[in-house]
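Q: For a teaching session next week I want to show students how multiple molecules come together into a single three-dimensional assembly. I've collected the sequence lines for a complex. Could you give me the predicted C-alpha coordinates for the whole thing so I can convert them for display?
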Amino acid sequence: MEEEVVAHWPQKNSRRFAYYIASAFMSQLEWKMDSDGISRSELAKKMGKTPGRITQVFNDPGNMSLRVMVEHAGALGMKVCVVGYEDPDNTRGPLHPDVLVKTWQLAGCPANLFEAEEAAMTEATQAHFWSPEGVIHQHTKAQPAGIYPAGHGGWGKTQGTPLKNGGKVNQPASISEEKRASA
Amino acid sequence: MSQEAVTFRLLPGVPGNSFRAVGFLEGHRELTAKTFFDALQENQREYITTSILMWSDTGKDLSSRNHGFKSGTTYRELYVFKQSTNRFYGFLCNPILGNKRLHVCVLCIHAYKNERETDTAEQERVERWRLRAETAAALSAFYKKEQGAKGEGKVLQWKKK
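A: Of course. Below is the structure for the complete assembly, covering every listed component.
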Protein backbone atom coordinates (compact mmCIF):
# COMPACT_ATOMS: atom_id res chain seq x y z
CA MET A 1 0.00 0.00 0.00
CA GLU A 2 1.48 3.37 -0.99
CA GLU A 3 2.18 5.86 1.73
CA GLU A 4 -0.23 8.74 1.98
CA VAL A 5 1.31 11.83 0.42
CA VAL A 6 -0.94 14.24 2.28
CA ALA A 7 0.32 14.87 5.80
CA HIS A 8 -3.09 14.93 7.43
CA TRP A 9 -5.75 12.80 5.84
CA PRO A 10 -8.76 14.99 6.73
CA GLN A 11 -7.34 17.56 4.36
CA LYS A 12 -7.81 15.19 1.42
CA ASN A 13 -11.36 16.27 0.99
CA SER A 14 -14.02 18.30 2.70
CA ARG A 15 -16.16 15.27 3.59
CA ARG A 16 -13.34 13.80 5.64
CA PHE A 17 -12.59 17.15 7.21
CA ALA A 18 -16.24 17.53 8.16
CA TYR A 19 -16.23 14.01 9.59
CA TYR A 20 -13.30 14.90 11.82
CA ILE A 21 -14.97 18.11 12.97
CA ALA A 22 -18.16 16.24 13.88
CA SER A 23 -16.21 13.47 15.63
CA ALA A 24 -14.15 15.95 17.60
CA PHE A 25 -17.34 17.71 18.65
CA MET A 26 -18.86 14.43 19.83
CA SER A 27 -15.71 13.68 21.78
CA GLN A 28 -16.30 16.90 23.70
CA LEU A 29 -19.81 15.76 24.56
CA GLU A 30 -18.53 12.36 25.65
CA TRP A 31 -15.92 13.87 27.92
CA LYS A 32 -18.61 16.06 29.44
CA MET A 33 -20.84 13.02 29.94
CA ASP A 34 -17.98 11.05 31.51
CA SER A 35 -17.10 13.85 33.88
CA ASP A 36 -20.75 14.42 34.87
CA GLY A 37 -21.55 10.71 35.06
CA ILE A 38 -24.28 10.88 32.42
CA SER A 39 -24.94 7.75 30.42
CA ARG A 40 -26.20 7.67 26.84
CA SER A 41 -29.55 6.39 28.14
CA GLU A 42 -29.84 9.37 30.45
CA LEU A 43 -28.94 11.72 27.64
CA ALA A 44 -31.56 10.07 25.45
CA LYS A 45 -34.15 10.56 28.16
CA LYS A 46 -33.19 14.25 28.54
CA MET A 47 -33.56 14.76 24.81
CA GLY A 48 -36.72 12.69 24.41
CA LYS A 49 -34.98 10.30 22.04
CA THR A 50 -34.29 6.59 22.06
CA PRO A 51 -30.93 5.34 23.32
CA GLY A 52 -30.46 3.70 19.95
CA ARG A 53 -30.71 7.05 18.21
CA ILE A 54 -28.15 8.60 20.56
CA THR A 55 -25.76 5.71 19.97
CA GLN A 56 -26.25 6.08 16.23
CA VAL A 57 -25.28 9.75 16.37
CA PHE A 58 -22.24 9.08 18.54
CA ASN A 59 -21.01 6.21 16.38
CA ASP A 60 -21.48 7.98 13.09
CA PRO A 61 -21.44 11.73 13.57
CA GLY A 62 -20.53 12.57 9.99
CA ASN A 63 -23.93 13.79 8.84
CA MET A 64 -24.95 15.70 11.93
CA SER A 65 -26.71 19.00 11.32
CA LEU A 66 -25.91 22.17 13.24
CA ARG A 67 -29.31 21.97 14.91
CA VAL A 68 -28.62 18.45 16.17
CA MET A 69 -25.23 19.60 17.49
CA VAL A 70 -26.89 22.44 19.38
CA GLU A 71 -29.55 20.11 20.80
CA HIS A 72 -27.04 17.54 22.02
CA ALA A 73 -24.76 20.16 23.52
CA GLY A 74 -27.66 21.99 25.14
CA ALA A 75 -28.87 18.81 26.82
CA LEU A 76 -25.49 18.67 28.54
CA GLY A 77 -25.43 22.33 29.51
CA MET A 78 -22.96 23.21 26.77
CA LYS A 79 -22.98 25.78 24.00
CA VAL A 80 -21.74 25.53 20.45
CA CYS A 81 -19.58 27.88 18.43
CA VAL A 82 -18.66 27.32 14.80
CA VAL A 83 -15.23 28.74 14.03
CA GLY A 84 -13.49 29.45 10.76
CA TYR A 85 -9.78 30.12 11.03
CA GLU A 86 -6.72 30.65 8.92
CA ASP A 87 -3.76 28.35 9.36
CA PRO A 88 -0.70 30.61 8.96
CA ASP A 89 1.49 28.09 7.17
CA ASN A 90 -0.99 25.34 6.40
CA THR A 91 1.18 22.67 8.00
CA ARG A 92 -1.07 22.04 10.97
CA GLY A 93 -3.70 19.34 10.97
CA PRO A 94 -7.35 19.96 11.80
CA LEU A 95 -7.63 21.80 15.08
CA HIS A 96 -9.36 19.94 17.88
CA PRO A 97 -11.98 22.26 19.44
CA ASP A 98 -10.53 21.69 22.91
CA VAL A 99 -7.53 23.75 21.79
CA LEU A 100 -9.78 26.76 21.30
CA VAL A 101 -11.79 26.07 24.45
CA LYS A 102 -8.60 25.89 26.50
CA THR A 103 -7.30 29.09 24.96
CA TRP A 104 -10.60 30.82 25.68
CA GLN A 105 -10.58 29.62 29.28
CA LEU A 106 -6.97 30.73 29.79
CA ALA A 107 -7.98 34.15 28.53
CA GLY A 108 -10.63 34.35 31.24
CA CYS A 109 -13.59 33.38 29.03
CA PRO A 110 -13.97 36.73 27.23
CA ALA A 111 -17.54 37.41 26.17
CA ASN A 112 -16.65 39.59 23.20
CA LEU A 113 -13.75 40.58 20.98
CA PHE A 114 -12.85 43.61 23.10
CA GLU A 115 -12.44 41.52 26.22
CA ALA A 116 -10.44 38.98 24.21
CA GLU A 117 -8.02 41.64 22.97
CA GLU A 118 -7.69 43.05 26.45
CA ALA A 119 -6.97 39.59 27.79
CA ALA A 120 -4.21 39.20 25.22
CA MET A 121 -2.29 42.11 26.71
CA THR A 122 0.24 41.26 29.36
CA GLU A 123 -0.66 42.19 32.89
CA ALA A 124 2.06 44.82 32.87
CA THR A 125 0.76 46.41 29.70
CA GLN A 126 -2.78 46.44 31.06
CA ALA A 127 -1.68 47.92 34.35
CA HIS A 128 0.17 50.67 32.53
CA PHE A 129 -2.60 51.28 30.04
CA TRP A 130 -5.25 51.75 32.64
CA SER A 131 -3.13 53.47 35.29
CA PRO A 132 -4.14 56.97 36.43
CA GLU A 133 -0.63 58.08 35.60
CA GLY A 134 -1.10 57.29 31.88
CA VAL A 135 1.29 59.28 29.75
CA ILE A 136 0.10 62.25 27.68
CA HIS A 137 1.83 62.20 24.33
CA GLN A 138 2.69 65.00 21.98
CA HIS A 139 1.19 63.84 18.74
CA THR A 140 2.01 64.46 15.15
CA LYS A 141 -0.61 65.79 12.77
CA ALA A 142 -1.56 62.18 11.98
CA GLN A 143 -2.61 61.45 15.52
CA PRO A 144 -4.71 63.64 17.79
CA ALA A 145 -3.57 64.38 21.34
CA GLY A 146 -4.79 61.98 23.99
CA ILE A 147 -3.77 59.64 26.73
CA TYR A 148 -1.97 56.56 25.47
CA PRO A 149 0.42 54.07 26.98
CA ALA A 150 4.02 55.03 26.40
CA GLY A 151 5.47 53.31 23.39
CA HIS A 152 2.10 52.49 21.84
CA GLY A 153 0.40 54.18 18.95
CA GLY A 154 -3.09 53.85 20.36
CA TRP A 155 -6.06 51.76 19.27
CA GLY A 156 -6.58 50.11 15.99
CA LYS A 157 -4.84 47.35 14.12
CA THR A 158 -2.61 45.32 16.38
CA GLN A 159 0.62 43.48 15.87
CA GLY A 160 1.63 40.43 17.84
CA THR A 161 4.89 40.29 19.67
CA PRO A 162 6.00 36.92 20.87
CA LEU A 163 6.31 36.55 24.61
CA LYS A 164 8.89 34.28 26.18
CA ASN A 165 6.11 31.90 27.16
CA GLY A 166 4.97 31.61 23.56
CA GLY A 167 1.95 33.85 24.05
CA LYS A 168 1.46 37.13 22.27
CA VAL A 169 0.81 40.64 23.43
CA ASN A 170 -1.22 42.93 21.27
CA GLN A 171 0.65 46.11 20.59
CA PRO A 172 -1.56 48.69 18.98
CA ALA A 173 0.16 50.04 15.92
CA SER A 174 -2.05 52.77 14.66
CA ILE A 175 -5.17 54.68 15.48
CA SER A 176 -8.27 53.71 13.61
CA GLU A 177 -10.57 56.42 12.35
CA GLU A 178 -13.26 55.27 14.75
CA LYS A 179 -11.02 55.67 17.77
CA ARG A 180 -9.69 59.03 16.61
CA ALA A 181 -13.24 60.25 16.38
CA SER A 182 -14.00 59.07 19.91
CA ALA A 183 -10.68 60.23 21.51
CA MET B 1 13.21 -20.38 12.93
CA SER B 2 14.22 -17.40 10.76
CA GLN B 3 14.57 -13.99 12.35
CA GLU B 4 11.88 -11.66 11.11
CA ALA B 5 12.85 -7.99 11.11
CA VAL B 6 10.53 -6.08 13.40
CA THR B 7 9.92 -2.52 12.30
CA PHE B 8 7.94 0.47 13.53
CA ARG B 9 6.23 3.11 11.49
CA LEU B 10 3.67 5.80 12.11
CA LEU B 11 0.15 5.52 10.82
CA PRO B 12 0.30 6.87 7.26
CA GLY B 13 -1.31 10.28 6.95
CA VAL B 14 -1.14 10.92 10.71
CA PRO B 15 2.36 12.17 11.53
CA GLY B 16 1.58 13.10 15.13
CA ASN B 17 3.31 15.99 16.85
CA SER B 18 6.00 16.70 19.47
CA PHE B 19 3.76 15.31 22.19
CA ARG B 20 1.91 12.31 20.77
CA ALA B 21 2.26 9.82 17.95
CA VAL B 22 0.76 6.46 17.06
CA GLY B 23 2.35 3.77 14.97
CA PHE B 24 2.43 0.07 14.27
CA LEU B 25 4.94 -2.58 15.15
CA GLU B 26 5.24 -5.00 12.23
CA GLY B 27 7.31 -7.90 11.00
CA HIS B 28 6.20 -10.84 13.13
CA ARG B 29 3.19 -13.11 12.81
CA GLU B 30 2.01 -12.08 16.27
CA LEU B 31 2.03 -8.41 15.30
CA THR B 32 -1.36 -8.30 13.64
CA ALA B 33 -2.50 -4.74 14.29
CA LYS B 34 -1.40 -3.23 10.98
CA THR B 35 -2.68 -6.13 8.92
CA PHE B 36 -6.12 -5.93 10.47
CA PHE B 37 -6.14 -2.13 10.28
CA ASP B 38 -5.46 -2.27 6.54
CA ALA B 39 -8.21 -4.84 6.13
CA LEU B 40 -10.88 -2.67 7.80
CA GLN B 41 -13.65 -1.20 5.72
CA GLU B 42 -13.07 2.45 4.87
CA ASN B 43 -15.58 3.80 7.41
CA GLN B 44 -14.06 1.65 10.15
CA ARG B 45 -10.55 2.81 9.26
CA GLU B 46 -11.81 6.39 9.25
CA TYR B 47 -13.24 5.93 12.73
CA ILE B 48 -10.00 4.58 14.17
CA THR B 49 -7.89 7.19 12.37
CA THR B 50 -10.10 9.92 13.79
CA SER B 51 -9.63 8.51 17.29
CA ILE B 52 -5.87 8.50 16.75
CA LEU B 53 -5.93 12.08 15.48
CA MET B 54 -7.92 13.25 18.49
CA TRP B 55 -5.65 11.44 20.93
CA SER B 56 -2.61 12.93 19.20
CA ASP B 57 -4.00 16.44 19.64
CA THR B 58 -5.44 16.16 23.14
CA GLY B 59 -3.83 13.18 24.87
CA LYS B 60 -7.22 12.41 26.35
CA ASP B 61 -8.83 9.03 26.82
CA LEU B 62 -12.34 8.59 25.47
CA SER B 63 -13.97 5.50 26.89
CA SER B 64 -15.86 4.65 23.71
CA ARG B 65 -12.84 5.07 21.41
CA ASN B 66 -9.50 4.73 23.16
CA HIS B 67 -8.14 4.38 26.66
CA GLY B 68 -5.35 3.14 28.85
CA PHE B 69 -5.37 0.77 31.79
CA LYS B 70 -3.85 2.99 34.45
CA SER B 71 -6.38 1.99 37.07
CA GLY B 72 -5.08 -1.57 37.10
CA THR B 73 -2.07 -2.84 39.01
CA THR B 74 -0.39 -4.55 36.07
CA TYR B 75 0.16 -3.70 32.40
CA ARG B 76 -0.33 -0.01 33.13
CA GLU B 77 1.40 0.97 29.91
CA LEU B 78 -1.20 -0.84 27.84
CA TYR B 79 -3.37 1.17 25.48
CA VAL B 80 -6.25 0.32 23.17
CA PHE B 81 -8.06 1.89 20.23
CA LYS B 82 -11.54 0.54 19.65
CA GLN B 83 -14.04 0.37 16.81
CA SER B 84 -17.14 -1.75 17.33
CA THR B 85 -15.72 -5.19 18.22
CA ASN B 86 -12.27 -4.40 16.80
CA ARG B 87 -9.56 -3.84 19.39
CA PHE B 88 -6.08 -2.58 18.54
CA TYR B 89 -3.83 -3.14 21.53
CA GLY B 90 -0.50 -1.50 22.10
CA PHE B 91 1.58 0.21 24.72
CA LEU B 92 2.67 3.74 25.55
CA CYS B 93 6.31 4.71 25.74
CA ASN B 94 8.75 7.63 25.62
CA PRO B 95 11.01 6.33 22.85
CA ILE B 96 13.60 9.11 23.03
CA LEU B 97 15.88 9.31 26.07
CA GLY B 98 15.53 12.60 27.87
CA ASN B 99 12.35 13.49 26.03
CA LYS B 100 9.43 12.96 28.35
CA ARG B 101 7.11 15.10 26.24
CA LEU B 102 6.77 12.64 23.41
CA HIS B 103 4.43 9.76 24.18
CA VAL B 104 4.15 7.18 21.45
CA CYS B 105 1.46 4.53 21.26
CA VAL B 106 2.94 1.42 19.66
CA LEU B 107 0.10 -0.71 18.34
CA CYS B 108 0.91 -4.40 18.23
CA ILE B 109 -2.03 -6.76 18.28
CA HIS B 110 -5.57 -6.91 16.99
CA ALA B 111 -8.36 -8.84 18.66
CA TYR B 112 -12.11 -9.07 18.42
CA LYS B 113 -13.72 -8.06 21.66
CA ASN B 114 -16.95 -9.65 22.72
CA GLU B 115 -16.68 -9.59 26.46
CA ARG B 116 -16.59 -6.76 28.95
CA GLU B 117 -13.20 -7.58 30.48
CA THR B 118 -10.05 -7.46 28.41
CA ASP B 119 -8.66 -10.90 27.76
CA THR B 120 -5.48 -11.12 29.80
CA ALA B 121 -3.87 -13.12 27.00
CA GLU B 122 -3.84 -9.96 24.88
CA GLN B 123 -2.42 -7.91 27.71
CA GLU B 124 0.33 -10.43 28.29
CA ARG B 125 1.19 -10.59 24.60
CA VAL B 126 1.47 -6.81 24.33
CA GLU B 127 3.54 -6.67 27.50
CA ARG B 128 5.94 -9.29 26.07
CA TRP B 129 6.36 -7.20 22.92
CA ARG B 130 6.87 -4.07 24.99
CA LEU B 131 9.85 -5.68 26.69
CA ARG B 132 11.42 -7.43 23.71
CA ALA B 133 14.77 -6.24 22.42
CA GLU B 134 13.47 -6.22 18.84
CA THR B 135 10.84 -3.67 19.82
CA ALA B 136 13.39 -1.34 21.33
CA ALA B 137 15.59 -1.78 18.27
CA ALA B 138 12.69 -1.00 15.92
CA LEU B 139 11.80 2.18 17.83
CA SER B 140 15.46 3.18 18.04
CA ALA B 141 15.88 2.76 14.32
CA PHE B 142 12.77 4.79 13.57
CA TYR B 143 13.52 7.69 15.89
CA LYS B 144 17.18 7.88 14.98
CA LYS B 145 16.09 8.24 11.39
CA GLU B 146 13.47 10.83 12.38
CA GLN B 147 16.05 12.88 14.26
CA GLY B 148 18.33 12.81 11.25
CA ALA B 149 22.04 13.51 11.12
CA LYS B 150 21.99 15.87 14.10
CA GLY B 151 21.07 12.95 16.35
CA GLU B 152 19.53 15.16 18.98
CA GLY B 153 18.79 13.09 22.03
CA LYS B 154 19.61 9.46 22.42
CA VAL B 155 17.00 6.83 21.79
CA LEU B 156 15.91 4.97 24.88
CA GLN B 157 17.53 1.59 25.33
CA TRP B 158 14.97 -0.81 26.67
CA LYS B 159 15.65 -2.65 29.87
CA LYS B 160 13.71 -5.71 30.94
CA LYS B 161 11.97 -5.55 34.30
